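The records we work with from here on pair a chain with its fold. These numbers are not coordinates but entries in a learned vocabulary of local backbone shapes. To see the layout at work, look at the sequence and tokens printed below.

. . .
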Amino acid sequence: MTFVGLSSYEGDGVAKALKAVSDGVSACAGGYNFASDGEDTKVTKVAPAQGSGQGDESVAFTQDVNMGEGAGIFRTEVVRKGNTLATFYTVNLTALDTGKAPETPAAVVEAQVGKLK
């Protein structure tokens, strides 16, 4: 599954937001914990990934996630085009069994980024 989010910024806000994502990949490399809807979730690893090369610049990374009774690998790519960030979250809930991160469909990234000014 791939989810797409869009965020727009004024001034240098887009540069600050993308830098925060990039800095977070390194800062969270050893993992972190969070709770959502009363469920504890543990991210065991965050690693840089190859981006699509779309937009003006991008940051991509993977996260190995333990979620209650299951586990999965999430892939995120944040693409900047002008003052907009397009964020693509792709998940494969059985990927830890194979050890392979999911790929974000190139056609989805190209189509969405192509709509941005």
